[in-house]
Amino acid sequence: QVQLVESGGGSVQAGDSLRLSCAASGLTFNEYAMGWFRQAPGHDREFVALISWSGRTTFYADSVKGRFTISRDNAKDTVILEMNNLRPKDTAVYYCAARLGRRAADQAPEDGDIHYWGQGTQVTVSS
After folding, report:
1. Is 50:109 a contact under the CB 8 Å cutoff?
2. CA-to-CA distance for 101 and 69, rounded, in angstroms?
3. 44, 28, 16: which is closest to 100 by C-alpha?
């Protein structure tokens, strides 16, 4: 079966960096755009970043643009989220997501567009 397994979460101070990884299995990785979403306590899940199947295009939420970078390695079936200059508002459970389709990453997908989800990894940023 399909599995998306996140790792790399943790507790850091404001201004620090973290690197999240998502290892995919059970799917043809290069047929999927990969993304990251997050959910803070008391809030709905929100989009963070998306990368196309080829890695050539990316799209970010305004709140993370310039601080977060998404990348993928199709040889290792892995997607990475590099998070720099973290802020307390970045505190959330971060979810890896897979969206079927070979098209550009040019807009934020909605929850209903996602075919597979990871189990989530906690990121806590203190001031």
Report:
1. yes
2. 21
3. 28
Q: Which of 114, 105, 100, 106 is nearest to 45 (CA)?
A: 114
Alpha-helical segments (H) within the chain: none
Structure tokens at 109: 């997908």
Count CA atoms within 13 Å of residue 55 on its CB side: 14
Cβ-contact 5, 118 below 8 angstroms = yes
Task: Provide the token pair at 111.
Answer: 């929850």
CB 43 within 8 A of CB 112: no
| Strand 58-60 with 46-51, pairing | antiparallel
The per-residue pLDDT string of the chain (127 residues; one tens digit each, 9 = 90 and over) reads 999 999 999 999 999 999 999 999 999 999 999 999 999 999 999 999 999 999 999 999 999 999 999 999 999 999 999 999 999 999 999 999 999 999 889 999 988 999 999 999 999 999 9
